[in-house]
Design goal:
The chain has about 350 residues and is an alpha/beta fold. Helix content is about 30%, strand content about 20%. Strand 12, helix 10 and strand 13 form a beta-alpha-beta unit.
Length: about 350
């Protein structure tokens, strides 16, 4: 049963053409026998002109190595990659011969290791995941999906055997953020982003979104030769934004980003102990302009998780260690170096 029409299929083709890699589960290959290609000659020509392969890398995932070597997936397009377990690797290699590279991930399928390998070893920055339901479920439950694209079609399917987009399990608390709706002939596209922060040392897609927001806030700071430009966002466990702030906000020439954000929240707000503070720069451990540094303000507020892009250099405070202050008090500090350049951008004049 076709749920979409020509215009939406063309949209999907455009998203494929924008991706570095396309991923489906082994069950989808068995059930649908997809080719997983960019259909438009014009889009393929653009990819080639940009120095990219005509078609994105094709990726599948299997725990057992049970793959159909006759599927169209293996015999069309460019490079193919199989991620599997240690026990599935030999079987996959035997079935496929040289049709694909086979990468074992260990005794179990490890999605973080898979995504890290795609990025670090294959240069994949944008991955489009097309199914099936088990793959969608695992990525969303682990907080690894940056964006969810849903299309609602004017059909009612009552067959209990029909495939489902998601399986049972625990997903993020709270609501996803709707970032776009678009009518495409008789279907409607809805794009969502996750919002709920992670709960420990492992970053989630929502952590990356909020940290990027904090880094973008830093660009709003009035310029200074004697202080860093920093942005901060405080987010509740269910993904609700509690407050945001940036250095030298309003009429206060010495206010820090975390300080500005926390000041906008009622100190008795019961959501603070479960919240995460996102700061483009490590919260300060010492400061001359105010009695309490930002690390202490965060702890006083009851927040016990902080995500930041880079550690404070010795430019103004030698040996600054806000992370140490937070960790010794029992807080979790997560550093995402991928956003360091963005956080440093409004501070280039201070870094030499």
């Amino acid at each position: 049963m076709l749920l979409s029409g020509p215009a939406d299929f063309d949209r999907v083709d455009a998203v494929r053409a924008s991706a570095d890699a396309l991923l489906v589960g082994a069950g989808t290959i068995r059930a649908d026998n997809p080719r997983l290609l960019v259909g438009s000659p014009e889009r393929r020509a653009v990819r080639l002109a940009e120095g990219r392969p005509e078609h994105p890398l094709k990726v599948t995932v299997t725990a057992t190595g049970d793959l159909d070597p006759g599927a169209r997936f293996w015999h069309t397009g460019g490079d193919k990659l199989v991620y599997t377990t240690d026990r599935g690797a030999a079987r996959a290699a035997r079935l496929l011969g040289g049709a694909a590279d086979v990468v074992p991930l260990g005794p179990d399928l490890d999605w973080r290791a898979l995504l890290g390998h795609l990025h670090d070893e294959r240069g994949v920055g944008r991955l489009m995941v097309e199914g099936g339901g088990s793959v969608h479920t695992q990525l969303l439950r682990q907080g690894l999906a940056d964006e969810l694209q849903l299309v609602v079609a004017p059909l009612i399917v009552g067959d209990p055997r029909a495939p489902r987009l998601f399986g049972p399990g625990r997903y993020q608390e709270g609501r996803l953020r709707l970032v776009e709706t678009r009518r495409i002939e008789d279907v409607v596209l809805m794009r969502y982003e996750p919002t709920a922060p992670g709960t420990g040392p492992l970053p989630t897609a929502a952590d990356r979104h909020w940290l990027r927001t904090a880094c973008e806030l830093a660009a709003l700071c009035p310029p200074s030769e004697t202080a860093f430009s920093v942005g901060a966002v405080v987010v509740a466990a269910d993904g609700t934004e509690l407050a945001r702030g940036h250095s030298r906000e309003g009429d206060d020439p010495v206010v820090h980003a975390e300080e500005a954000a926390l000041a906008k929240i009622d100190a008795a707000d019961p959501r603070l102990p479960g919240a995460t503070v996102y700061s483009s720069l490590e919260p300060c451990a010492r400061r001359a302009s105010r009695p309490a540094p930002c690390a202490e303000l965060i702890l006083r507020a009851g927040v016990r998780r902080v995500v930041t892009a880079w550690r404070e250099p010795d430019t103004f405070v030698p040996g600054a260690d806000g992370t140490g202050v937070l960790v010794r008090a029992g807080a979790e500090v997560v550093v995402l170096p991928a956003y360091e350049a963005l956080a440093k951008a409004p501070n280039r004049h201070l870094l030499g």
